[in-house]
Amino acid sequence: MSKNILFLPGDGIGPEIMETARRVMEWFNDKRSLGMNIIDDQIGGAAYEKYGTPLAAETLKKALEVDAVIMGAVGGPKWANISYDKRPEAGLLEIRKKMGLFANLRPAMVFDALIDASTMKPEVVRGLDIMILRELTGGVYFGEPRGIFDIGGGERKGINTQVYTTAEIRRAARVAFELARQRSNRVCSCEKSNVMESGILWREEVIKLHAEEYGDVELSHMYADACAMQLLRNPRQFDVILTDNLFGDILSDEASMLTGSIGMLPSASLGDVDEKGRRRAMYEPIHGSAPDIAGRDLANPIATILSAGMMFRYSFGWVNEADMLELAVRNVLDAGVRTIDIAAPGEKPVGTKAMGDAVISALAKLS
Ligand code: NAD
Asked: Using an 8 Å Cβ cutoff, are 282 and 99 in contact?
């Protein structure tokens, strides 16, 4: 069955890294007859140049119709002074919102060959493979009331409201439990139920859903501040960490830094299942458009390649192909192939295209 994939390169290094991901996807199409149908369009600054807006209505329509969206990165100095709603980042926020992408999945994996890139001791991070599930469309970033208000006497008050409903908690928790079943079957749910009512509700609803439908998954709970500490002390104790928007923002950044390189980390954002039974999904590297190295064949394409791997796994259920792609990346790193961001002093780095070639030949060897 063919899969329609909306392909949005974006800005800066976006086109270069996405071209590499395209070659990898085409390799799978040719050798495995996977039938991926790539639909090209634009987002961010590139879309602003083409359509006068960072997310054209037609592009959004396609995003809502396809089986998955894969994106490079958006943003750059060229668009820094245009109005906020026309900036590249506004297009990204809008597509996430309109697609209803409420679950953000960020894996933090440490590849043995890159263990020295981490600032942590090797014995703490060796073999690390955790998944953070951050609720993405609720909580304090969206809650009302919000704003900055004059309260007289030269004083002002800033307000944001942490708010979660049963339905919002349950749908995020459901994704976490499903994910755990495909991994080591453990979920650690993190909140601040010691000091926040929204945290008490979060914990109660997670426990309830677990008892109703996911009794086979091991569930534990941790206060978010304790989790921040445990991520540094003993990160390998975790499999899936389930948490809200605010704590997830912080914990996922912390976890990504355990791995040492921003150019290596993919992400997925998932939404509801539509009327055709497909879960809305967008895949993208966690890094930005890196204008400082754009257009110079320097960027590491692995985060984007692994984002395609997450798409195989989570949108299409192509587990073997996803495993194969991860193994190919692992083999390339084991063979000492490095882009500039992961090269140790004295190692000669390869460019974006050459890293793509190396992954494709590693795939060919594996098949
Ligand atoms: P960045 O992630 O683009 O870059 C941070 C540093 O990491 C830079 O030195 C860059 O060269 C390096 N880097 C990033 N990705 C790399 C890769 N694949 N290979 C090698 N090196 C890599 O963050 P920034 O510099 O703060 O932001 C630049 C632009 O990207 C801004 O306009 C920002 O708004 C945007 N941004 C977009 C996204 C997104 O599209 N999801 C995310 C973050 C930032």
From this structure: yes
CA of 75 to the centre of ligand 1 (A): 9
Q: Which of 40, 116, 253, 292 is catalytic?
A: 253
**63 alpha-carbon distance from chain centroid:** 17
Catalytic, 141? Answer yes
Judge whether residue 109 has pLDDT over 80. Answer: yes
Q: Would you say the CB of residue 300 lies under 6 angstroms from ligand 1?
A: yes
Q: Is the peptide bond before 122 cis (omega within 30 degrees of 0)?
A: no
Does residue 253's CB lie within 6 angstroms of at least one atom of ligand 1?
no
Task: State residue 344's pLDDT score.
Answer: 86
The predicted-structure confidence for 320-345, as pLDDT tens digits, reads as follows 999 999 999 999 999 999 999 999 88
* 289 CB near ligand 1 (under 6 Å): yes
**Index of the ligand 1 atom closest to the CA of residue 291:** 28
pTM exceeds 0.85, yes or no: yes
Domain 129-258: CATH superfamily, name plus number: Isopropylmalate Dehydrogenase (3.40.718.10)
Instruction: Answer for the pair 219, 173: CB distance below 8 angstroms, yes or no.
Output: no
As a whole number of angstroms, the distance between CA 304 and CA 8 comes to 12
pLDDT of residue 117 exceeding 90: no
Residues 18-36 have pLDDT tens digits of 999 999 999 999 999 899 9
Counting ligand 1 atoms within 8 A of each CB, the residue from 101, 262, 306 with the most, and so the one to mutate, is 262
Nearest CA, atom 42, ligand 1: 288
Distance in Å, CA 287 to ligand 1 centroid: 5
Assign a CATH topology to domain 1-107+273-367: Isopropylmalate Dehydrogenase (3.40.718)
Contact 92 CB / ligand 1 (< 6 Å): yes
Judged by phi (left if over 0) then psi (alpha if -120 to 50, else beta), residue 156 lies in beta
CA 358 to chain centre: 24
Query: Residue 294 class from Cβ within 10 Å (0-12 exposed, 13-18 middle, 19+ buried)?
Result: middle
What confidence tens digit (pLDDT) does each residue in 121-131 have? 999 999 999 99
Delimiting residues of CATH 3.40.718.10 domain(s) in the chain: 1-107+273-367, 129-258
